[in-house]
Write a structure and sequence with these properties.
By secondary structure, the protein is of the alpha+beta class. The protein has a domain at about 5-165: Nucleoside Triphosphate Pyrophosphohydrolase (Alpha-Beta Complex), CATH 3.90.79. The chain contains 4 helices and 11 strands, in the order ααββββαβββββββα. The protein has helices at about 5-20, 30-35, 100-110, 205-215; strands spanning about 50-60, 65-75, 85, 90, 115-120, 125, 135-140, 155-165, 175-180, 185-195, 195-200. The strands form 2 sheets. Strands 1, 2, 3, 4, 5, 6, 7 and 8 form an 8-stranded mixed sheet that branches. It has a 3-stranded antiparallel sheet with strand order 9-10-11. β1 (about 50-60) and β2 form a beta hairpin. The longest helix has 20 residues, at about 5-20.
Length: about 240
């Protein structure tokens, strides 16, 4: 790729970083640093075992499209084995905040050096039926070539990436209707193939990526979301 295209790619991600920092549906990373994470309704520190964070790591592909890094969990795990997920996991006592959790987990799971990730935004948390609160952290990977995946095979079988825009399209998508506390909602399933392997991206991971894509591309998905009522609804998109 020539220098001109490299400059264009860098500008695209830089512009996105600037816009996402200005559009905070939850709380900016600067607010985290300035307030030591004290300005939003985080539960007491003793309850960190009920909080988790995931990293939505976006980079620019060879065709200048925005792509997101995903993993397929190990088939030997006791929960959610073999499912597609964003890098992430439960908050640990030593983690300063959810940003630290997301970066630590991505480093442990797939060898993503935190210094390569420019964290630009944090989405409103998703509350699960089991009481777990998941905070999505958006980070940009400007230098994809510098990322050399090193998988923790006990947790991750495969690391791959997918175009972020696909989570706004009705292509290769199906849905299943469920009900919770008398209200119906939809679980979305996105079928995707990479390097001869077939993946299904669904449930919470799909919901987070639909929300992220809507904010990044500043448009609504081409289908009805019908979110679960136990999820905390994100603030208005920019």
């Amino acid at each position: 790729m020539d220098a001109k295209n490299e400059d264009n790619r860098s500008k695209k991600l830089s512009d996105l970083a600037q816009r996402l920092r200005l559009c905070q549906p939850y709380l900016s990373v600067n607010d985290f640093a300035a307030t030591n994470v004290g300005s939003y309704d985080r539960p007491p520190r003793a309850q960190t075992d009920r909080r988790a964070a995931v990293l939505i790591c976006i980079f620019e592909g060879d065709n200048c499209e925005l792509r997101v890094i995903l993993t397929q969990r190990s088939s030997t795990l006791s929960s959610h084995s073999g499912e597609v997920a964003l890098p992430g996991g439960k908050m640990e006592e030593g983690d300063r905040d959810e940003v630290a959790t997301a970066l630590r987990e991505a480093n442990e799971e797939i060898g993503l050096d935190p210094s390569l990730v420019d964290v630009v935004s944090i989405l409103k948390p998703f509350s699960m039926k089991n009481g777990m609160v998941v905070v999505p952290v958006i980070g940009l990977l400007f230098d994809k070539i510098a990322f050399h995946p090193t998988l923790n095979k006990a947790e991750v079988e495969v690391v791959f990436d997918a175009p972020l825009e696909m989570f706004l399209k009705d292509e290769n998508r199906r849905e299943v209707e469920r009900e919770w506390m008398g209200e119906k909602y939809l679980l979305h399933y996105f079928d995707y193939e990479a390097e001869g392997r077939k993946f299904v991206i669904f449930a919470l991971t799909a919901g987070i990526l639909i929300e992220t894509a809507s904010m990044v591309y500043q448009q609504s998905p081409a289908f009805v979301e019908m979110k679960p009522n136990f999820w905390i609804k994100p603030a208005n998109k920019c």
